[in-house]
Amino acid sequence: MKPSQKVFLAPMEEVNDIAFRLLCKKAGCELAWTGLSSPLNPKELDLQDKPVLQIFAKSTKGIKAFMKKYDKKVYAWDFNLGCPAKLAKKHGFGSYLEDLEVIEKILKIMRGSTKKPLFVKIRKSSLAYEVLKIAEKYCDMIGIHPRTRAQGYSGEPDLKWAKEFKKQAKIPVIYSGNVNEKNYKSFLKEFDYVMVGREAIGRPEIFAKISGSKHFERSFKDYLKLAKKYNLPFKQIKFQAMQFTKGQRNSRKLREKLIYVKTVEEIESLL
After folding, report:
1. Nearest to 231 by CA among 260, 204, 264
2. N or C: which end of the chain has fewer CB within 10 A?
């Protein structure tokens, strides 16, 4: 599998709802990841945009049935081994899953449950190269974020480590960490693909700047239209409204007012 474009929307919890993913695609992003999904969660997922569906797990329980349910609706699958959040620590998934035997069992059952591309995403850790060896058996690509779990999203990514990891990898490497519209080309000289994460929050137009599209402008009105179409909850719409105001004129005052709104109609009239 070789996507024609090499800059993707990184997986982000809360941020990557279907309306936001569709806006990013409209702006020129070829592949968009979902937030985290559990194979044990019965919640229905809206995947009409054929994203990369990212899952978290600490056992193989439920994975086969989950993948059978959604396989025709996704472009690819991703197993998250990089989440540093407190919730991940509490339940032992993401970057807190360190049992290599369990990791291999999960990737093996995922590989056997789909013909679609399979990815795994990791952070810089003492187990990174051992996970790489496992990934090379089952995965089409591996995504790396060269910050440690303890760093979270603070401090600087360890580019020296990332470049050395790329040299050792026998499968394509997707780089994630401080990628933006100004520096993505330099990262693509070192890695096969890159992901834009936090720089894209509230800014789907970043992909238009990267792809060279001159026909896309950021508009919360466009997001809201899609959010209504896909029946996104008020809480999610309000969250995105906060993000979309960043960088706009009087954005601070707008966000202060958004704190108190209680309906989508109030958001619409305000923005």
Report:
1. 264
2. N
